[in-house]
Design goal:
Length: about 425
């Protein structure tokens, strides 16, 4: 299943069958080939309608997406994949790290104050126009509670900051606090004090894990959206730190750098080979019902764009069902990344330019206001830490399998319970911070 591009179908939350669909082919440890649920050669499942004679795809809603919180998670995650693609195209030669959920949360919260025209723009960007849910914001509260539960190790928060002396309607503040657990902030006009207050809020929300910013707040703010997040992964099976060593990471065919590589000669992971995307896919479980899915191109020189264009909630969900458990020789670079900066231009590219020009936020205030800036501050890391010291018994191998993340790759951090995209990264050089 491919991400709907401009002018193409935006249908999601369904599995499509019929000729012309992309084949997800997985190489199993037995050596057999398996097609995914969206494989073009897949026959109809028991109880499902067969394709008609003209070969038009037949929609079949996946039971997973019938759960309201999962369907909402899929919607905002598809926004996240869109945002990631824009950021990646803007930074083709640099690492990209995003926690799209925090940005989606800020935009969703802002939509509480939007009148119909502006609300429609926001809902389309967030894929809300494709779901029927009379209590969107109540369901969002449920989603936030699920993904930020203590066992998840995820800190994520969003905030709406308004220009100084703005009079805000209580009818906006009350539902904002009820569904999103946050209150808007009105600037004082003193740039030093305002920056200090924002930094204190970020520190409180992330338990001090995201560094204080030294960047001054813009002088002319009408509405500023701030999304922050921090995550430190805890593997279900921890790595032995004695086996971590400096190894080569191939930046391209000619350049290599030495980075700390964690290794496990008998790692149990879930694995598949996507022959269309020319990449090896692996999934490692994390504590708290979370997992990381890695996309590793077969060649170090391979462009990552084709993989990036395929990323949707439905595609990742299909992968999660089709990967097979194997035992492998695994190496993973230790990672500690952070990002602080603007996503304003990226958000504008998602057909949201109208928010910055002449939006209607009359549910917030009687004064004309508009979005002026979107800020993102995040931290992400994993090392050897994890739960158990030993892997559970894996399948017997009929051939040796190696999975070495020693060249540029993409990773997706996903909440298994809801399917929500929490972090996504393009790692071209693990040394970058």
């Amino acid at each position: 299943m491919e991400e709907p591009a401009a002018g193409s179908s935006r249908a999601w939350g369904v599995r499509l069958k019929g000729p012309g669909m992309q084949a997800l082919v997985l190489l199993l440890w037995t050596g057999a080939l398996l097609g995914s649920g969206s494989c073009q050669n897949a026959g109809p499942e028991e109880g499902s309608p067969a394709p008609d004679t003209v070969g038009a795809p037949v929609e079949e809603e996946d039971p997973f997406f019938k759960v309201p919180v999962n369907k909402l998670a899929a919607a905002v995650s598809n926004f996240g994949y869109d945002l990631y693609r824009v950021r990646s195209s803007e930074s083709p030669t640099a690492n990209v790290l995003l926690s799209p959920l925090s940005v989606a949360t800020a935009l969703s919260a802002l939509s509480l104050g939007a009148e119909q025209r502006t609300e429609s723009s926001l809902h389309r960007a967030l894929y809300y126009d494709l779901i029927s849910n009379p209590d969107l914001h109540g369901t969002y509260k449920e989603l936030l509670a699920a993904v930020t539960a203590p066992q998840k190790n995820l800190k994520s928060a969003s905030r709406i900051i308004f220009e100084k002396k703005l009079r805000i309607k209580a009818s906006f503040v009350a539902p904002l606090e009820k569904s999103y657990g946050t209150r808007p902030r009105i600037l004082t006009g003193n740039s030093r004090l305002d920056l200090q207050e924002v930094n204190n809020w970020v520190q409180a929300q992330t338990k001090g894990k995201v560094a204080r910013s030294t960047r001054e707040l813009p002088g002319e703010i009408s509405i500023l959206l701030l999304g922050v997040a921090y995550f430190k992964g805890q593997w279900v099976t921890k790595f032995d730190s004695r086996k971590t060593s400096l190894e080569d990471f191939h930046l391209d065919e000619e350049r290599t750098v030495k980075v700390p590589m964690m290794s496990d000669p008998k790692a149990v992971l879930r694995y598949g080979l996507d022959s269309d995307l020319n990449c090896k896919i692996a999934q490692l479980p994390l504590t708290g019902s979370m997992s990381i899915i890695f996309f590793l191109p077969l060649k170090v020189t391979q462009n990552l764009t084709m993989i990036e264009e395929s990323l949707t909630s439905e595609f990742i969900h299909d992968i999660d069902r089709e990967l097979k458990t194997v035992q492998a020789v695994l190496t993973v670079p230790k990672l500690k990344l952070s990002y602080e900066g603007e996503l304003t231009k990226s958000v504008q590219e998602l057909k949201l330019q109208s928010l910055f020009d002449s939006p209607d936020f009359s549910k917030i205030t009687g004064k004309p206001i508009k979005l002026t800036q979107v800020e993102h501050r995040i931290g992400f890391e994993w090392n050897e830490d994890g739960g158990s010291a030993t892997s559970s018994p894996g399948p017997r191998l009929t051939f040796p399998l190696d999975y070495h993340l020693n060249q540029p790759f993409i990773f997706v951090l996903r909440d298994t319970d809801t399917g929500a995209l929490l972090f996504i990264g393009k790692i071209l050089d693990p040394r970058s911070t």
